[in-house]
What does this fold into?
Amino acid sequence: MSADHVFAALASPARRELLRLLLEEDGQPAGRLAERFAMSRPSVSEHLKVLRDAGLVAETRKGRERLYRLEPAPLMEIRDWLGPYERFWREKLAALTTLLDEMEDDDAGSR
It folds into this structure.
């Protein structure tokens, strides 16, 4: 699945909350997940479909129930993609910390 699909799926707070719930307890039926939201069960099912289409959740049938579980692989790909940006900001923040420390030392020395 493309990163665009994953980012689009993650854009919704409801879908991010569904992922969080599946992280806490994998293999949950749609009905139990829907109980946690102030929206209709069909709306929750539509959000689950978007997550499934993006590869973020998998669906299995157990009797009449559909159980959903988290699929972490697309999130790992996004994490890997974000890695260089995280290093970039860490370096910028470290440089800012150094600059502020130097400014503080200069200010203390002029007193």
About this structure: The beta strands are 28-29, 57-62, 65-70. Helices lie at 3-10, 13-24, 30-34, 41-53, 73-109. DSSP finds five helices and three strands in the chain.
